[in-house]
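Researcher: I'm preparing a figure for a lab meeting and need a structural model of a single chain. I don't have an experimental structure, so a prediction will have to do for now. The sequence is pasted below. Please return the structure as tokens so I can convert it later.
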Amino acid sequence: MAFFRRMSAWDVVSRMNIMLPGQRPLVAPSAVVQARQKLGGEAVRQVFHLTQKSWHEAASHPTWTGLRLLGVDGVVWRTPDTPKNRARYDSASNQHGDTGFPQVRMVCQMELTSHLLIGSAFDGYRSNEMKLAEQLIETTPDHSLTPFDRGFYSLGLLHQWQQAGTERHWLMPLRKGAQYEVVQRLGRQDAIVSLSTSPQARKQ
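Model: Understood. Here is the structure written out token by token.
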């Protein structure tokens, strides 16, 4: 239905001619809602993965030095304020209590030259963005470069990202206080370095 978002949901169903035979020109709105609830979220997920794969394979996106350019970032969006959503997703809070709407935290992966999404992961408001980003490792294509912001600084995540495939590179601004050792200098402010984990991480 997202392909025809300018049309009402029941009008789309009617035009697709997928309802039971009859004389009615339109499907009752309640029937569309009930059928969508029976369908569940798995069908939507499969349609997303099939369409994004097909579109990206057909698009022949430009590359940079042979690498596909991807981006990963997080977003928080509000859902209808229902007991079910509040129990599932939770919400932000302040000194007066919970805020007005349950919120979903999502991490999205995008092909940067087209702005088409190729992957996403979401959970409740209090979930960790780095944990959500780990779910995108499997769908990340080989021969790619993915910029992250400093909020995704986790050597465990970045190591998995690089090792999961072939030439899966990442790029990130150097975090203040990051521990590293220069292995080879390539030019002004350009060097190959070895990053060090924190003493606490080494103990673990």
